[in-house]
Amino acid sequence: MDYSFNLYNALAPQGICLTLKRLLEKSSLTPVILCIGSDLSVGDSLGPVTGTLLKEQLSGLNCYVYGTLSKPITAHEVKYMNEFLRATHPEHPIVAIDAAVGLAGDIGLIKLAPKGIKPGSGANKKLALVGDASIMGIVAEHSMFNYSLFSATRLNIIYKMAKIIAEGVSSFIIESLQKGSWEEKVNVFERKSG
User: What value, to the nearest 5°, has the Cα angle with vertex 181 and ends 89 and 91?
Assistant: First the structure.
């Protein structure tokens, strides 16, 4: 089941946090976040802007965010990232974040799904599937040539969506780390008293 939150919904960050809990409830490990996109195009910069905000919000915590404005992960690098992430973070769930095109009425929607994404599919690229869960921001209308994704997307929409996604994801990760820390303390206490 897919979940959607509107850019202008004040409860969207909390909805993203709760949805991630539901999508990743089977894993006790903190997810790895992969933000896909390029800083060379406003329409494709949702991933790197989100990654940059997440790096700032989660600074100093034991979590991994790949894809920022200073070190973007483009759609073409996903096949290498798949191998790298599975080797470096085995068993950790991967949440992929990317911009997407959709219907005109869907612009501004943030969609979460319990499956990975194929970056670049809106531009008819045949690239590898990445992620165990995905967050996609609909930033432009799907068209025959998809020029709107690259040239007519407003930075204001990208930034607002990135802030909402980053707030929801960081809340989820902080709660996951706190829960893991609490469970670890309980296990240590049980071992000492047992």
Answer: 20
Q: How many percent of the chain have pLDDT more than 90?
A: 64
Distance CA(59)–CA(63), nearest Å, equals 9
| Overall pTM > 0.70 | yes
- 150 burial (CB, 10 Å; 0-12 / 13-18 / 19+) is middle
Could you give the CA distance from residue 172 to residue 42 in angstroms, rounded to a whole number?
27
Give the residue-averaged pLDDT of 83-90.
94
Q: What is the crossing angle of helices 46-57 and 155-193, to 10°?
A: 40
- Single-letter code of the amino acid located at 51: G
**Two structure tokens written together for 174:** 């902080």
Bridge-based pairing state of the strands 94-102 and 32-35 = parallel
| Residue owning tokens 């165990």 | 132
Q: Where are the beta strands (DSSP E) in the chain?
A: 3-6, 32-35, 64-66, 94-102, 109-113, 133-141
For residue 188, name the pLDDT band (cuts at 50, 70, 90): very low
